[in-house]
Amino acid sequence: MKKILYIIGIAAIVAAFSSCRGEEDFTESIFNTDIPAVDPTKATYEFDQWLYDNFMVPYNVEVKYRFDMSASDLNFQLTPADYNRSQLLSHFIRYLFYDVYTKFAGEDFMKRYGPRIFHFIGSSGYSPTTGTEVLGTASGGVKITLYNVNEMKPYSDRVKYNGADVDVLNEKYFHTMHHEFSHILHQTKSYPVTFGQVTSGSYDPIGWQDRDSVWTHQHGYVTHYASSATYEDFVETLSCIITDTKHRWMNRIINAAAMGVRQGDKEDILELIDSLDIVLDAPKSHWNNFTLYEESEYNDQTDEYDPTNRYVLDEHRLLADPTTHTYQVVNKAADAYVDQYKYKELRKFTSFKDDFLPWVKVSPDEDLTGINSLLKKLDIATKWYKENWGLYAFTLRREVGDRQAKINDFLKDEVTIYELK
Questions:
Q1: CA torsion through residues 371, 376, 380, 385, sign
Q2: Rounded to an integer, what distance in angstroms lies between the CA atom of residue 130 and that of residue 127?
Q3: If we measure between CA atoms, which residue out of 155, 154, 152 comes closest to residue 170?
Q4: In angstroms, how far is CA 24 from the centroid of its own chain?
Q5: CA 118/CA 94 separation, integer angstroms
Q6: How many CA atoms lie within 13 A of 295 on its CB side?
Q7: Count of beta carbons in the 10 Å neighbourhood of residue 74
Q8: Cβ–Cβ contacts within 10 Å for residue 110, how many?
Q9: Where are the alpha helices (DSSP H) in 171-323?
Q10: How confident is the prediction along the chain (421 residues), in pLDDT tens digits per residue?
Q11: What is the side-by-side order of every strand in the sheet holding 117-120?
Q12: Bridge partners, residue 328, by sequence
């Protein structure tokens, strides 16, 4: 009892002392407030000041572009990020990431939920255990690390960005950023359990990298990495909506639908395509003239290739035109590619809507995955995004696409690359 009274007495004294101190008017800091936030003597001062004004002040975000071994993954052999490319990537992050979310979610959204550190690495990171390339990582919802910065196309008045360059930006950087940011959001507000139940029996956290895209799509996943775990599947689904090209989405849809669909889902497929802003009826649309190939496997016993029941879209025979974003069948070299890998023509199609969908079998089988599972996951993920954050993934996709279409105007009018002083 005496000990308890003693502790209470000490607490009362501390409380009284604190209340007295609280009445004082603190007018002077014990620290030197004349020191600027950015060191003007550094050779990188101009860029550092830009980062301070555009990331630190509005969002409390640090962009680490200088090589920091203590903040790097010591399992990899890494190189520093190029100074000029770091500037370019920082501008793109502000224009294509922060400004997009702020436009639709409000000024406080990224201030509250955005990452606190961006960490740039110049080279690739290759996993010593899986042999896969690491494009980016996130640490505790605080830091996002982006690799391959030195592979970015540099910008100048004489060098313009084209569609292929934008695709690289999405694949190397922005897919990763939306993926990791979606992790932050679902760790704040959990995603529905029903999402993981759609394809609960086929997740593989160890062997996912050995799965090809055809198997992945036919089992209801947007990417092979999505098939590694439920939470990776969820964020990959959202990131693919925002960043993947129309052509990649059509490859995914055709592969996923080729094995069959359930009753009523054909209309949902066309609705998804419409949401992705893919025009099927355009006269020059590639989807009015495409081919499915049957893939064969080599048999050591017979020294021949045996056909399997898997299908592959003719994507390796397509060449993207960076100026028009259209696709064309390429030359004889592509035919040699088909022969080399023993892809045998299964069927030609003249129209996705009028020829492909009527050809696809309709099955009542409830265990059927593929496009049906993909549609369910898209519905669950986009509803969660809308109900919890007021964000519509397909609207973000259109905004990002519109901004990317004007990327050269942005570079010309808004971007200054500072030289070392």
A1: positive
A2: 6
A3: 152
A4: 51
A5: 12
A6: 13
A7: 8
A8: 20
A9: 175-188, 193-197, 213-218, 230-243, 246-257, 265-275
A10: 344 433 334 444 444 444 444 455 656 767 666 677 888 999 999 999 999 999 999 999 999 999 876 666 656 667 889 999 999 999 999 999 999 999 999 999 999 999 999 999 987 777 666 666 666 666 666 888 898 999 999 887 777 899 989 999 998 899 999 998 999 899 899 999 999 999 998 999 988 988 888 889 989 999 999 999 999 999 999 999 999 999 899 989 988 888 788 777 889 999 999 999 999 988 878 888 887 776 655 555 555 545 444 444 544 333 333 333 333 333 333 444 444 445 667 778 888 988 888 888 876 665 567 899 999 999 999 999 999 999 999 999 999 999 999 999 999 999 999 999 8
A11: 62-64, 117-120, 143-146, 136-139
A12: 319
Which is it for strands 117-120 and 62-64: parallel, antiparallel or unpaired?
parallel
Structure tokens at 233: 């599947």
∠ Cα 236 240 159 (to 5°): 125
Q: Which two tokens stand for residue 192?
A: 């529905």
CB 265, CB 271: distance < 8 Å: no
Cα torsion for 348, 349, 350, 356, to the nearest 10°?
170
Q: What are phi and psi of 211, to 5 degrees?
A: -85, 135
How far is 303 from 232, CA to CA, in rounded Å?
40
Closest CA to 375 of 260, 269, 239, 259: 269
Smallest Cα–Cα separation from 139: which of 122, 123, 120, 115?
Answer: 115
Q: Position 405: which residue type?
A: A
Which run of H or E residues covers position 99?
Answer: helix 99-105
DSSP one-letter string for 225-263: GGGG-HHHHHHHHHHHHHH--HHHHHHHHHHHHTT-B-T
Residue where the block lists tokens 């969820």: 234
Nearest 5°: CA angle at 251, between 247 and 252? Answer: 115
Residue 131 is encoded by which pair of tokens? 């042999």
How far apart (Å, rounded) are the C-alpha atoms in residues 128 and 120? Answer: 20
**Which sign does the torsion angle of CA 18, 21, 23, 25 carry?**
negative
Q: Where are the alpha helices (DSSP H) in 276-405?
A: 332-340, 357-359, 371-389, 393-405
* pTM for the model: 0.80
| Residue among 266, 295, 291 at smallest CA distance from 349 | 291
The residues with which 299 forms a beta bridge, in sequence order, are 304
Tell me the CA end-to-end span of the chain in Å, nearest whole number.
Answer: 70
Alpha-carbon span 300 to 297, nearest angstrom:
10
